Amino acid sequence: MERLFINGGYVESKSDRAIEVENPATEEIIAEVPDASAEDVDRAVEAARKAQREWRRVNALERAELLHLCAAGLGEAADELAVLLTREGGKTLKENRDEIDWSITAFRHLGEVARASQGRVVGPTKAGQMNLVLHEPLGVVAAIYPYNYPIVLLAWQVAAALAAGNTCVVKPAEQTPLATLRLGEVFSCLPGGVFNVVTAGGERSARLVEHPGTDMIAFTGSVATGSKIMAAAAPRIKKLLLELGGSDPFIVLADANLDVAVQGGVFAAFLNAGQVCTSAERFYIEEPIYDEFMARASEYAGGLRVGDPFGEVDIGSLVSRAARDQVEQVIGELVSRGARVAHGGGVPAHLPRGYFFEPTMIEVTEPRGQQIRREIFGPLATFARVRDLDHAIELANDSDFGLGANIYTSSLETAMRAATELQAGTVWINDPLKDNDAAPFGGYKMSGLGRELGFEGISAFTQAKHVHVDFAQVPSPEWWFPYTRPDIAVELEESALA
Ligand code: NAD
Q: Which residues lie below 8 Å from residue 130, measured CB to CB, with a gap of 6+?
């Protein structure tokens, strides 16, 4: 049984329950982690609370230096972490190695950004006074993650939370806890209690949200769980950062560079077997190029190699049997409503073991009905014809989600119009899925609350405090006692007490 990481060391859990970790590419059980007990969670929260009293006093330069050491630790352990991620999650080794590189840049960037405090001095309302706006930490952040990018999603939030003076209790997804547990050692430069990891299933994770000792919940995961967390956080008015699901549109107009659109589209749909919050799920292709786009995209998708995530492949395994069952169920539903499988649609014949699935393209005739209210978390994308830009934008926005949106066009005017009209936290023009540590990331509508990365991603983990200073130390007779009765122009009724 793996151990939890609490107060600077690995400790045995007090739990009576364990969670099995399966390698989804081989269906082998590779480890067991504790399903943390209430006592485990209490211990981690208490350690984080105690550590935060000191951590908030550490100066910004020293905190940044420690985050650079965390980044260096990630660099040293990069290969080992990538192997662990591949074994527990089924994502390809290449994608997991990239994930560690992105995590390193996030730690370095956020550590430095936090040094440039975003507090300010505002103009006073009286001479001899000064008004300061400080950005202070919230306290203990409970940080809960999904299985698809366990380390980089943690880096984006935990680096910002720590840089801002908070401490963290991290809870990885039950499918992918191993690389995250390893971070305890990788981040050994941090003082004990600043970074803690507990493992638990959904039911027992709820304790972290409700716990009176956690001040903020940073959550990345599905809308369904995000909504439960919001409700559980309500009684204590706990601060929330919610990064939730998406159903991103991908618009290709007739004037697009088709080579770029085909390659970008197939990548955006099938990266990490489509298990990306910003996977392109709803393709809207302008009528004159629809047939050519479909033919070229099918051919390109047909060249993708599915298989052992440690091998020379483009697509690994889905994370679990349940994830693959869900993809099969969605395909069944779409086909029963008249959709046509244009490419893929099944388990690759040469991969009977493991939860592999072909990259699948589905043509729909009723684009308004397709996947508007749900997210497909797998290698499956839908395709529909659109008349023009207006039609495409109307369908793209007809969704409860608003995480990302893509448009392919060679017209600057069209691109900029789409950029302003698409309802999404990120709009990608002619290049899919790129993130930038210096720019905010998050969702419109049901895709989330708040932003990570950029300046926004640091301020999400702070609260503003106004400090009013009277350095002249002069009394204010115009405000203070004794009052002078105001000389009011309108006639007042005689006071009963007069
Ligand atoms: P999930 O919501 O099922 O689980 C996420 C985490 O929440 C897990 O650690 C789980 O144990 C925990 N959890 C479950 N119930 C809980 C409860 N009641 N209280 C507290 N924690 C609880 O998500 P998943 O299936 O692991 O991941 C896929 C989802 O994540 C997709 O919807 C995807 O779009 C989303 N996602 C969003 C982003 C983003 O940045 N917006 C990034 C990656 C993934």
A: 121, 124, 469, 471
